[in-house]
Specification:
- The chain is mainly α.
- The chain has one domain (2-150).
- Helices cover 74% and strands 0% of the residues.
- The chain has seven helices and no strands.
- Helix 2 (11-31) runs parallel beside helix 6 and helix 4 (46-64) packs antiparallel against helix 6 (89-116).
- The longest helix is centred in the middle third of the chain and has 28 residues, at 89-116.
- The N and C termini lie far apart (48 Å).
């Protein structure tokens, strides 16, 4: 049974499933941000469990292929070391799951935070779409919108 899973779930298949798997979450965040579906399905632990499981699976595949995990710490020394790490598909997949997970988490946070300030759900669709595509820029756009609704600029909340 486990061997069949490993044959089916190649890195390319996992990449496809992760990319397709987050789309329903994002569509719910963009079109139905204040629904119970969003509350219980998207901004809960459910997507974290799915993406965390896929991350653990990629880690396990890396372990089985004798990946040198200690070389990951070299990415902080030089940008060329980071480039070398990205040449490994397993590391690249772990990075991609990391990126997609954080963007989805931030999208959920944007929705929850915008509800505190009664920001129009149509207005937050732009930062949500940009967060899906270009994470930090979407957060920046949201903070600009948020400043007008909160009528203050705080260094922390």
């Amino acid at each position: 049974m486990i061997e069949q899973i490993f044959v089916f779930f190649t890195i390319e298949t996992l990449y496809l499933w992760v990319n397709l798997g987050v789309l329903p979450f994002w569509l719910i965040l963009i079109f139905f941000p204040s629904s119970k579906l969003s509350k219980y399905f998207v901004t809960s632990i459910f997507p974290i469990l799915l993406l965390g499981g896929s991350y653990v699976f990629a880690l396990y595949k890396s372990y089985l292929s004798s990946y040198n995990f200690m070389s990951n710490f070299e990415l902080y020394l030089d940008i060329s070391n980071l480039s070398n790490l990205f040449s490994n598909n397993l590391f690249l997949m772990m990075f991609w799951i990391h990126f997609v997970s954080i963007n989805l988490f931030v999208g959920g946070w944007i929705v929850k935070d915008s509800q505190k300030f009664f920001i129009n759900k149509t207005l937050i669709s732009l930062p949500l779409i940009v967060t899906y595509l270009i994470g930090p820029l979407g957060i920046f756009i949201y903070w600009i919108i948020r400043m007008f609704y909160a009528k203050s600029i705080n260094l922390y909340d």
